[in-house]
């Protein structure tokens, strides 16, 4: 029997081809389109890098077979399975159905003599060969504009049966095949993946090049090589262009991609229009630079709309991305205006607002201008968050950059039973852990109040805002204490060395007595993580930023920080939830 070659496998591969239902997309409400785009971008960006263990990229596809392709490489089939089903949970999947797919695993084979040494001996002194094999089974994402994918088989015809050839004959044919490929080094890069038992063909070939004619020339030349002309059968070819996840709106708007810009070309026109619509309603909102807004028009009873908005506002106010949500009577009904600091937060809010009674129209988009926008001199004032950090830095207080990176926190309060709440949060956290942007999510129990705090920390604002939509459905969520506060909650996270926990709690009680006597202070509670009592969260409510900063500038706080350095397991995080 002919000898099969030895192989080595690396990452599992999923080519996920999607076809857009353009009629349904055009007919969809604007708020649902915006939600689909936000969720699609979040899905793609959250999975782009995987800590060196695989990657994800997205490509437009030319022709009728698909509109775009999402390419995933991961160490396990479980991860591919999860990624495929996670996409199906996005609103984008309502309009982008799977037209085709291909499952395989990266592969290197032992046809060359040097490769046989690698497979037979396991360890070889030739570091260059080892790096080459590893680059085949753990490939980097090539930095190229165009992609071509096709599956292929080796023939089993009576006259030309690849599997009846001896190992030496096959190795000789593969060597000639490789010589042609090496002639395109630097022009075309490839990922070869085996799919026996996984899909309809035996291999998948993915080629990358900046110049598409280099792919054409390579394949044309290889057609004349006997390993192809006599022994190869090919499936359908897919050809496309890579684009960044942020350009998904441009792809679905029929605009040129890549845009070369983080925003789509149509944003400027929408920006002034939405602001003018808000002003025409007689609503005056001081929107920070980069803010996004939602306008919802309703024919429902004004009282019913107002009551429903009041209920939503209680949840919206938990998020530092929320600026304001207002109800305004109009000549033909009621309008609701909601302003947020980020596009993803506004898109999430629009989904809830669209369910208000009697809604007839929803409009979502950027606002620009307003407080924090460029003034006549061209300078841009710092954001409130940056100002707070700057003031704290002047006081030699660390604020908001753990391990050198920004994090974004969501804090919600719940009156639900702690055990019940922890179970639901654990289920959510398991899902959040699939995303590299998730730092941690935990439940904290208060000492002064009967509430629990659900704290979720993320590396990006958009990820935090998306998570907020899920966390808002937890049981018993209530408005935070002191919500009349102009500054809101200031969260400070401390991990205490176990031997010093009681000492830390006693010190907090002393500081708490001091806070009770300070102007502008509403409430402060020391909350402990239900899963780790040494992980504590101080939730503090203030009338204004100035009042809170007065405390941070006090001798009592400086003494506490200095004392705490000896008993804390790591550096504290100060998170401001204005």
Structure report:
The chain is of the alpha+beta class and 578 residues long. The chain has helices at residues 22-27, 30-47, 77-88, 113-121, 127-137, 167-182, 212-223, 226-229, 248-252, 267-280, 302-316, 343-353, 384-394, 418-432, 461-471, 501-516, 545-552, 555-564, and strands spanning 7-20, 55-61, 68-74, 96-109, 146-154, 188-194, 203-209, 232-234, 238-242, 292-298, 322-330, 333-340, 359-366, 408-414, 438-446, 452-458, 477-478, 488-495, 521-529, 532-542, 573-577. It has an 8-stranded antiparallel barrel with strand order 1-3-2-9-5-7-6-4, surrounded by 4 helices. β6 and β7 form a beta hairpin. The longest helix is centred in the first third of the chain and has 18 residues, at 30-47. The radius of gyration is 29 Å and the shape is globular. The relative contact order is 0.09. Residues 261-271, 370-385, 395-405 and 480-487 have low confidence and may be disordered. GO terms for molecular function: metal ion binding. Keywords: Heme, Iron, Metal-binding.
């Amino acid at each position: 029997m002919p000898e099969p070659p030895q192989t080595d496998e690396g990452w599992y591969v999923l080519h996920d081809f999607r076809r857009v239902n353009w009629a349904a997309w055009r007919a969809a409400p604007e708020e649902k389109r915006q939600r689909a785009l936000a969720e699609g971008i979040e899905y793609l960006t959250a999975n782009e890098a995987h800590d060196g263990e695989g990657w994800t990229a997205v490509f437009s596809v030319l022709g009728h077979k698909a509109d775009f392709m999402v390419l995933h490489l991961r160490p396990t089939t479980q991860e591919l399975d999860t990624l495929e089903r996670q996409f199906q949970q996005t609103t984008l999947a309502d309009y982008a159905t799977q037209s085709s797919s291909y499952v395989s695993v990266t592969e290197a084979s032992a046809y060359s003599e040097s490769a046989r040494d690698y497979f037979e001996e396991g360890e070889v002194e030739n570091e260059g060969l080892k790096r080459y094999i590893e680059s085949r089974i753990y490939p980097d994402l090539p930095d190229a504009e165009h992609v071509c994918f096709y599956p292929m088989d080796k023939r089993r015809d009576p006259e030309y049966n690849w599997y009846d050839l001896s190992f030496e004959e096959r190795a000789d044919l593969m060597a000639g095949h490789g010589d042609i490929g090496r002639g395109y080094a630097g022009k075309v890069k490839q990922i070869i993946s085996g799919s026996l038992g996984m899909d309809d063909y035996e291999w998948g070939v993915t080629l990358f090049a900046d110049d598409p004619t280099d792919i054409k020339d390579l394949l044309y030349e290889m057609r004349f090589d006997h390993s192809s002309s006599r022994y190869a059968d090919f499936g359908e070819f897919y050809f496309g262009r890579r684009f960044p996840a942020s350009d998904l709106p441009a792809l679905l708007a029929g605009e040129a991609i890549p845009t070369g810009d983080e925003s789509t070309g149509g944003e400027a026109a929408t920006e002034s229009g939405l602001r003018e619509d808000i002003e025409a309603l007689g609503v005056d909102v001081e929107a920070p630079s980069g803010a996004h807004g939602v306008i919802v028009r309703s024919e429902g009873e004004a009282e019913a709309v107002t009551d429903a908005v009041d209920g939503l506002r209680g949840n919206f106010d938990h998020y530092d991305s929320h600026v304001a949500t207002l109800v305004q009577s109009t000549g033909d009904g009621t309008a609701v205006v909601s302003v947020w600091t980020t596009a993803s937060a506004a898109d999430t809010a629009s989904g809830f607002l669209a369910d208000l009674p009697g809604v007839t129209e929803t409009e979502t988009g950027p606002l620009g201008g307003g407080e924090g926008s460029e003034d006549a001199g061209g300078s841009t004032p710092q954001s409130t968050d940056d100002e707070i950090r700057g003031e704290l830095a002047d006081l030699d207080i660390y604020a908001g950059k753990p391990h050198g990176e920004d994090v974004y926190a969501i804090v919600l309060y719940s009156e639900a039973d702690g055990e019940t709440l922890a179970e639901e949060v654990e289920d959510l956290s398991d899902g959040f852990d699939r995303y590299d942007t998730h730092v941690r999510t935990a439940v904290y129990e208060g000492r002064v109040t009967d509430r629990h705090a659900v704290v979720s920390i993320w590396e990006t604002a958009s990820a935090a805002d998306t998570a907020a939509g899920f966390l808002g459905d937890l049981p018993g969520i209530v408005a935070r204490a002191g919500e009349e506060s102009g500054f809101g909650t200031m969260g400070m996270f401390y991990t205490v060395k176990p031997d010093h926990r009681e000492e830390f709690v006693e010190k907090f009680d002393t500081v708490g007595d001091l806070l009770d006597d300070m102007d502008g202070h509403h409430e402060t509670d020391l909350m402990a993580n239900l899963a780790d009592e040494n992980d504590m969260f101080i939730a503090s409510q203030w009338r204004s930023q100035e009042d809170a900063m007065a405390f941070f500038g006090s001798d009592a706080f400086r003494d506490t920080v200095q004392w705490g350095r000896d008993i804390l397991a790591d550096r504290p995080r100060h998170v401001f939830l204005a």
